[in-house]
Amino acid sequence: MQTLSATDLTLGYGDDIIIDDLDITIPKGEITVFIGGNGCGKSTLLRSLARLLKPKVGEVVLDGADIAKMGTKEVAKKLAILPQSPITPEGLTVYELVKQGRHPHRGFLKQWSSDDETAVNNALTSTNMMHLKERSVDSLSGGQRQRAWIAMTLAQETDIILLDEPTTYLDMTHQIEVLDLLFDLNEKEGRTVVMVLHDLNLACRYAHHIVAIKDKQIFSQGKPEEIITCHLVHEVFQMMCDVTFDPRFGTPMCIPHGKGRCLIKKQTATELA
């Protein structure tokens, strides 16, 4: 199984530093979720781990080698990334999209093989998209379209999958559909999954490991049940909250403070005492 880490990592755009002198090791065979406020560097860090952004300082190490010194196809055989809101060429079918995931495994003169076909069919089956393979991607619902893109990354047959906000713009049903799919891929196939998520409660439900980012650094990391506290949420998101436990899953559940209709009788200080 492939390993992924970074040391002394400094990232930015022009003179703007987004991540500064950061060290991170992604746990193998687990689901890791990056959390943090808007603009804190979650997506920037993910892009760097996928070699889409060159570090200003430091290095990303994939399977023991500096990723910057590896060939594009070599990286793509070990690591797949699904960017936020990918754009599909008009008229492309699900099958044609998923076939693109086999590109890293094909040479200039290599013909489409039975191994390629098997990988595509397995990806379509895993994502429950086989019955939609002849449909154009742009005709699908949001959840189906996201599953088609995930199928393409699965066709690469990599141990590591990176996803930048895979549930953005999806309704509640499709969010759970996509996250359940990724959970199953981890549970059944041992894939290492790294995601950026905005919904803290869903991050706690699905992640084995959470990385909270603030002020260009890792503020805290670990199991959700060990690190998600009122203090962390206040420091990372500048929000007051209560942290309780999800009654169904037992994972941390954040209840933000703020205004809204309150149907619970407000207790006085004497009553609380």
TrEMBL record:
The coiled-coil regions, if any, are none
The GO terms describing molecular function are:
ATP binding; ATP hydrolysis activity
The record, for InterPro entries, names: AAA+_ATPase, ABC_transporter-like_ATP-bd, ABC_transporter-like_CS, P-loop_NTPase, Siderophore_ABC-ATPase
Q: Where are the transmembrane segments?
A: none
Protein's cellular compartments: Cell membrane
Stated name of the protein: ABC transporter
- Tell me which GO cellular component terms the UniProt record holds: plasma membrane
Q: Which SMART domains match?
A: AAA
Which source organism does the UniProt entry give?
Answer: Virgibacillus halodenitrificans (Bacillus halodenitrificans)
Give the GO terms filed under biological process for this record.
iron ion transport
Task: Give a yes or no for keyword Ion transport in this entry.
Answer: yes
Membrane topology, record value: Peripheral membrane protein
Ranges of residues in domain ABC transporter: 4-240
Chief subcellular location equals membrane
Q: Which domain of life is it from?
A: Bacteria
Q: Which UniProt keywords apply?
A: ATP-binding, Cell membrane, Ion transport, Iron, Iron transport, Membrane, Nucleotide-binding, Transport
